[in-house]
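Exercise: predict the fold of this chain.
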Amino acid sequence: MLSSLHVFATERREGLRNPVLRDNLPRIDTGNTSSSTPVLEKGEIQDLYRASESGLDLLVVELLYTLAGRVGEMCAADVTDRVERGRRSYLDVTRKENKERILPLGVSLAERLDAHTAGRTEGPLLATASLVYQQATGRAPKDRSIALYEAVRAVVVAALPDGENGYGAYQAHLEVFAIRHRGRLRELFTGHGPRLRAGTPGRIGILDHLMSVPLCERLDGDRPAVEAAWGQTLPPLDGLAAAWARTRRRCA
């Protein structure tokens, strides 16, 4: 670092002597790890695995651990960065200083990626419900009410065949749904969503919320179950259900 600073300084002022020479290089005590970059031990990685609540959690841990990846690299990775060569799978990532690296994927990691992407051919590799919403609407969720999120999530979970146990796998299915029904979602959010001002006729407030996309998916998948779980404290469901059904007829 001192040498780099010296080069930087001499570009602006001549006559500076490089403070780092061959005969006075700093000595590094390999036995002293107090200033080393923190590295998780094997047992700590196993604790992370056990604490994971979904397939996505496990996928993130395995990607970062086995590829020695940085969070930014993994977040920037796209589905199209997955490379297949013969029987081997690779991930093409852009590392520091825009250096591209083709990293091999183990069998377990490749299978987790297959389960997570579930046939998607575009979009972020680690797409989540929030990204699905942004892809469908072109903006981030406007309503960040935790109470509403939990209430609508409970309805979605109640309408799943395996309930809470199936919610992790449901995330991958939701991404496929959003891609396949992009036209319907675009029509719904354009005509009734957050782009319209509050009070505009036809505007449906719950479309401001992150959980509106999985709610639409469950209305297609099991509308009676959604209606049965819909609580009286939630906004009326009829408007959304009717508007979503109309998009099916128009896009059929």
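Check your answer against the key: The chain has two domains: 42-117, 129-251.
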